[in-house]
Write a structure and sequence with these properties.
two-stranded parallel sheet, 2 strands, TIM Barrel, mainly alpha, 49% helix
Amino acid sequence: MNETIKSNMNSNIEQALATYQRTWVEVNLDSISENMRKMKENVAKQTQMLAVIKTDGYGHGAVPIARCLEDADYVYGFATATADFAIG
C-alpha cells in the first residue's frame, strides 16, 4: 500500500475516532484489490469491470479505494451515485 495513502487513512481514522467513538472499521486496501481480482477470475476473460464507489465509502475513504483500483487493467471505470461526487 502506498505510504502516503496509508498516512492519510491513519489521519482520517484518528479524526473519525475523535468524533465517533462507538465503532471501529478498518479497511484493508490490499483485501479490496484481492476481492476485485477474485471477482475478475469468475467472469469471462474479456469482461471489464466498473468499481462502484459509494459516497466516501460511508466514511471509509472513497479516494484511497478508487486509487488502489485505478491501475487494474480490467477496471473500465468507476460508478458513483451522482455526477457531483464523481467530479467533486
